Amino acid sequence: MTAPAPTPAVTELDCTRLSISEINRALGALPDGAHARITNPRGKHNLAVGLTRPLEITIEGNAGYYIAGLCDGPNVTVEGFVGWSVAENLMSGTVRVRGNASESAGASSHGGMVIIEGDASSRTGISLKGGTVCVGGSVGHMSGFMAQAGVILVGGDAGEALGDSLYETVIYVAGHIKSLGSDAREEDLTETDVAQVKDLVEICGFDHVDPANVRRVASAKQLYNFSALKDQKY
Amino acid sequence: MCGIVGLHLKNSQLAPRLGELLVPMVDALAVRGPDSAGYALYVADAPSGAFKYSLRAPHAEYEWKGLGRLLETRINSSIEIRPKANDAVLVTLTDEAPFRAALTEEAPDVKIFGWGRTLEVYKDVGHPLEICDRYGLPAAAAYQGLGHTRMATESAVTTEHSHPFGVAEDLAVVHNGSFSNHATIRRELIDRGHHFDTDNDTEVGARLIADTLSTGADLEVALKTIVARMDGFFTLLVATRTQFAVVRDAFACKPLVVAETEDFVAVGSEYCALADLPGIEGARVFEPMPEEVHTWTTEGA
User: A67, CA 20 to 30 Å: which among A135, B61, B115, B277?
Assistant: First the structure.
C-alpha cells in the first residue's frame, strides 16, 4: 500500500511586505511543482514574471501590468482583473484571469495558453507568435493585429479592425464583429475548426460558446504574400 | 508618459479627507512622471461672489502682503491672501480681466495658474510627493480634485509647463499623451483672440476646451470638440466647478481606469493609484472606450 502523495506546502508571498523583485526572486527559487499564493496585489505590476519552472501560482486579487510575462512553464491564476499586457511573450504554461484584462493581453505569446474569463481590451493577442489566447467575453479594437501564428478565441464580440494585417493566426469569434481590419476576412468553418474550438471551450470552461457556431477570421493574404520574395536574391 | 488621477466626491462627508486620499494616488503614479507635478482642488470656501486666483511667485520668500496692499489700492477692493510656499490663493470680488490687468501692472513676474469661484491650482518641478507636501495637499479639503505627474515630451520641464492648466474660470485640465497638431490649433485660437502662456501642447487643448465652454456648452460638448479637432495621443481629465469628465483618443494608447462607488468617482492612469481608496473592493471598475466622453456632475456646487 502506497502512502498518498503529500500535499505540497503553499508558499505565501504578501505584496504589502515584499517588493516585486523579492516576490519574483522567491518564485524563481521554488522547486518544480511548488505552489505559491501572492496576496494583496492591489494593482501591482510585474508579478510572477520570467519564471521557467512548472509551478502553480495564484494571485489573490486585482493586479497591474505585465502579469506572468516572459514565463515558460508555470500555471498562473489571477483571482481578479489585470492591467496591460498580461502574459506577454508567454512561452508555455497557462495564465488564467478570472476577471477582465486591459490592453494587449497575451501580446507576442509564442506558446502556452492565456485565458481571460471576462472581457479583454484593445489589441488582444497583438503580434501573437504561436500561443493561444481565449477570452470569454468581448475584445476591444485592433485585436489580433499582425498576429503571426497561434489561435485567438473570443466568446463575446470583437471591436473594430479585428485581425488587421494578419499572418497565420486564426481568430474565432462567437459574437458580433464590429469590423474586420485590412487583409482579414471571414472564412467557412471546417470540421477541424469546430473540433479545435470544442477543445478550447472545454479547457476554458466557456459553456456559453457553441463551437459549431463561431466565425473564423483569417488572413486574405493580399498584404502578406511571400511569393513576392520567391525570385529575389539576397 | 505621464500619470493622471482624479477624485470626484458624491458623498460630501469625504470632503475633509480629499487631500489625504489624493496624495497616495499621485504618489502611486510618480513613476509615470517624476519630473514635475501639480494638482487642482475645488473648494467652496470663498465669500459669496468672490473669485479665487491661484498665483505663482518667482521665489518662496515673496512679499505677498505688500503685493496685496498694492493690488487693493489699484482695484479698490479688499483682498485676502493665503500663501503656500511659492504660491498663494488670492480672494477678491474683482473679475478676471481687471484683476489680470492690475496684476500685470503691479507684479508682472507673478503668474496666474488658475482662477474661479472654487478652483485652486498648485504645481511645481520636483518629485510629486514632495510637491504634495510643499503645498499642503495631505490636509486639504475639497469636493473634487485632480492631479498630474509629468514626464515631459513636448516642451520644457518648468513649473509653467506643468499641469493642471487652469485657463478659464474654474477649468482645470490634465493630460497624458501628446497632441500632434497643436501648432495648427494654436494659430487658429490666436486668430480668434486667445492668448497663450506657454508653448505647451496641453495648453492648446485646454484653451480649445475653454473656447467651447465660452459658447455656453458643457464639458461633454467641449470634449467631443477635442476628439474632433485634436490629433495625437490623449487621455484627458477635465473639471469645472460643476463637472468632472474624461476622454481618450481613438486609439486609446494612453491608459485610464475609472472606479465608481456610491461615495465617489475615482480615475487614474493605472489601477494601483486607486487600490487603497475606501470601499474600492465594491467599486464598478472600467476603462473608458476610445472617443467616449464620461461626465459626472456635482449637484449644487
Answer: B277
Radius of gyration (Cα) for chain B, nearest Å? 18
Please report the ipTM that was assigned to this predicted complex.
0.90
- The answer to whether residue A80 scores a pLDDT higher than 80 is yes
* Local confidence band at A234 (pLDDT 50, 70, 90 cut-offs): very low
Do the beta carbons of residue B77 and residue B51 sit within 8 Å? no
**Distances from the Cα of B265 to the Cα of A18, B14, B159, B261, B274, angstroms:** 30, 12, 28, 6, 10
Q: What is the DSSP string of A24-35?
A: HHHHHTSPTT-E
* Contact criterion met (CB below 8 Å) for B96 and B214: no
Burial (0-12, 13-18, 19+ Cβ within 10 Å), A233: exposed
Can you read off the three cell numbers belonging to residue A96?
488564467
Cis bond upstream, residue A54 (ω within 30): no
- The angle formed by the CA atoms of residues B282, B284 and B287, to the nearest 5 degrees, is 140
Q: Which residues does chain B have with pLDDT short of 70? A: 300-301
Q: Is B89 helix (H, G, I), strand (E, B) or coil?
A: strand
- Judge whether B1 is closer than 8 Å to chain A, CB to CB: no
* pTM of structure: 0.94
Chain position carrying cell 486639504: B140
What is the CA A152 to chain-centroid distance, rounded?
A: 8
B2 carries an active-site annotation: yes
Helices B201-213 and B182-191 pack at an angle, to 10 degrees, of 40
The span from the CA of B99 to the CA of B160, in Å, is 20
Average pLDDT of chain B is 96
On the 0-12 / 13-18 / 19+ scale of CB atoms within 10 A, B193 is exposed
CA of A179 to nearest chain B CA: how many angstroms apart?
15
**pLDDT grade, residue A233 (50/70/90)?**
low
